[in-house]
Each structure stands twice: as C-alpha cells, then as structure tokens.
Amino acid sequence: MEFHGFQKLTLLDFPGKTACTLFTGGCDLRCPFCHNAELVLHPEAAPTVGEAEILAYLERRRGILDGVAITGGEPLMHPELAGFLRQVRALGFAVKLDTNGTYPLRLRTLVEEGLLDYVAMDVKASPAGYPAVVGIPQFRTDRIAESIRFLLTEPVDYEFRTTVVREFHDLAGIDALGRWIRGAKRHYLQAFKDSVALIGAGMTPVPKAEMLQMRDVMLQYVSACEVRGV
Fold first, then answer.
1. CATH number of residue 28's parent domain
2. Which pLDDT tens digit goes with each residue over 59-116?
C-alpha cells in the first residue's frame, strides 16, 4: 500500500497517545471546506511513501511510539488497508482511523477483526444538509447512517466530529444532527479554518459564541460535546 503523506510524530491526532500519522490519497466526497484538496482531487501528484518504509520506521520506534493514525482523503477507499493494518498490529501499535463513514462494511470488518482501537468519524451535517456539505447533489446518507448506528453500539472507542461552516450550518441544522446521533458518547464541533488549499471558496467560520450555543444544543443528545479550534 502507498501513502501520500507521513508525519513521523504527533501528540494531537491520536487521543492520549504518541503516534505517527499516515495520509491516504483520494476521497469519494467533495466537501468544499476540505483542507486536503490536493489529496482528494489530485492524489497522483503527491509524493508517495511505501508501506515497507513505514513498517521499517515503526519497527525502529517500538516502545517509543504508541500508535498510528490513518487519515486522508478517505482511508477506507483502499481495500488493501486491512493487510497493512495487520502488519502494524503485529508490531504492537494501536491504530486510530479517520473516516467519513461511507464504507460501513469495511469499517465493521476492521473493527470486528480487532484492527482498530479508535475511530473518528466525520458527521458532516444533518441528513438534509449532506448534499450541499459534501458537494454531491442528490447524495444519499444510507451508508453514513449505517456507520453511525454501528459506532453507537460501541464496538470500539470512537468520536463523531463536525466541521462547522457558516454557509452550511445553523442551530436548527445542528439540532437535527444531534437527533441523528442521539446517544453518542463523544462529539466535537470543529471551527472552520480558511486556507489556500480548499476545494471550494467563499466560506466563513461561525463565531465562537454561536459555536458554544451549538455545543449546548448537542448536549441535549450526546454525553459529551466540545468545541475545537476557537
């Protein structure tokens, strides 16, 4: 398996663990606010890192690093991910996966095989808001809903997270999102950050005071909700 980015040390990407972060290329969504536009739109243009190099690095870091965070793009687009994770597991590392939830069967398979310790799933909006947020007209949320239902059974430690953008999110939409993931153990509202590498343009952040209102709305439905990045 090839990766399109390799951060050798992070203290932020894997809760409670020192880790490295691996970036996969390609995604099945086109969220306008995505800050990894090149990985999504033109993964073939990014330098690659092979799994042999990464596994050799992990072998040298046994006892120093705790885990590996897999992000993208959308990692579950790649069926060969499971084979790579088996090798990571054999070296004794914990694994965190970031996913958009569009591959529920692959998610379930990795969890049931014991290859994941933590899943961070993006829940982009309420079901009605998804087509605009993911940049795909007529987008259906069936697979997203299946992934949500699976994680709500707590087969693995997890979080849901939502990047909040003025043009896509308001209090009513956040309330609908909260009802969709009712009973979740952990949810994060992430502040939108503009950059030069976005897929779309013309988007703005939501003020901190309103983000805190959104948190209070979410706390009607989830056990814990925090605001990130404000």
1. 3.20.20.70
2. 999 999 999 999 999 999 999 999 999 999 999 999 999 999 999 999 999 999 999 9
Find the domain containing 163 and state its range.
2-169
Please give the Cα distance from 229 to 182 (Å, whole number).
Answer: 24
Number of domains the chain contains: 1
Spell out the residues 6+ positions from residue 225 whose beta carbon is closer than 8 angstroms to its own: 186, 187, 188, 189, 215, 218, 219
Look at residue 18 and give its three-state secondary structure: coil
Q: Mapping DSSP to helix (H, G, I), strand (E, B) and coil, where does residue 13 land?
A: coil
Is 130 part of any domain?
Answer: yes
In-domain check, residue 223: no
Region at 135 (left for phi over 0; alpha for psi -120 to 50; beta for the rest):
left
How crowded is the C-beta side of 171, counted as CA atoms within 13 Å? 11
In a domain, 188, yes or no: no
Within a domain: 191: no
Encoded amino acid at 43, one letter? P
Other CB atoms within a 10 A radius of the CB of residue 60 amount to: 10
